[in-house]
Amino acid sequence: MTTPPVVDPDALAHACHLLEAGELVAFPTETVYGLGANARSPLAVRRIFAAKGRPVDHPVIVHLHDSSQISAWAKVPDPALLHCLTERFWPGPLTLVLPRAEGVLDEVTGGLDTVGLRVPAHPVARALLAAHGRALAAPSANRFGRVSPTTAAHVRQEFGDTVFVLDGGPSDVGVESTIVDLSGPQPSLLRPGGIAVEALAEILGPLPRGHTPAPGNLDAHYAPLAGVVVTTRPDADAARLRALGHRVRVLPAGPADDHARRLYRELRRADADGVEIVVAERAAQSGLGQAINDRLQRAAMGSPVDHDTRD
Hints:
Layout: H1 9-20, E1 25-27, E2 34-38, H2 42-52, E3 61-63, H3 79-89, E4 94-99, H4 106-109, E5 114-118, H5 123-132, E6 136-137, H6 152-159, E7 164-165, E8 178-181, E9 188-191, H7 197-204, E10 227-231, H8 234-243, E11 248-251, H9 256-272, E12 277-281, H10 288-301
Parallel strand pairs: 1-7, 3-5, 4-8, 10-12, 11-12
Antiparallel strand pairs: 1-2, 2-6, 3-6, 4-5, 8-9
Helix pairs in contact: 1-5, 9-10
């Protein structure tokens, strides 16, 4: 088993001091590193958007310490259903979209009538939420539209010394949370992620795709500087592109858990190594594979590679 990261008490105290002062703190979650701010402070939340270059109408997820805080942030249309989901999947990589409660900031919701809530499982995130005592608004700790960070070093590559980073080691899951919309008459899937849709279907039944705006749902997102080609024949496509003179790297599929953990790390490494095109093998469309393929497809949409080179 992986040894849980040790929470540095001095670093934790400094992070809390910064958050109290309305500053930003990057912190680890089991999915990716988040860029956090006090979710009740309009100025602090605006600093997230300024640092990321994020559109102000794009909602951010509110991270809670435990489910007892839900009522301060959201109205609950179906308490029994919510209880089933939170008992099974929280703490963990599931975000639930609910009608917002009175007083929730427009800066957090992007002006929508809904709010996304999550209780992260990472011990450093949980220690920070407990010590700070307030919910944190926190999208991924990277420039908007780019590859999400799964280590503290990735965050520092994005922001240098301008953002304090709590180091909790590499993220265990490696892709963002699954987002489920509970605000309408029927639950729907807004983003596949770290909780498999098949596991959710055991409680919710078949999940249609929803249309409520949610983080990470732009057509072009999660994109490295390198081009991305998503394919079922990576070796053949890589050979063809190399013959055209491109610097190419293959990102093979594999066991879904491992594939998800290394996905963003390998995309970032390709940029660092000056790779021109990443040829990414499509994952099996089940379990975490659905989230992996979603991220790869969005990365490819933001890619400079011509469409006729894709599978």
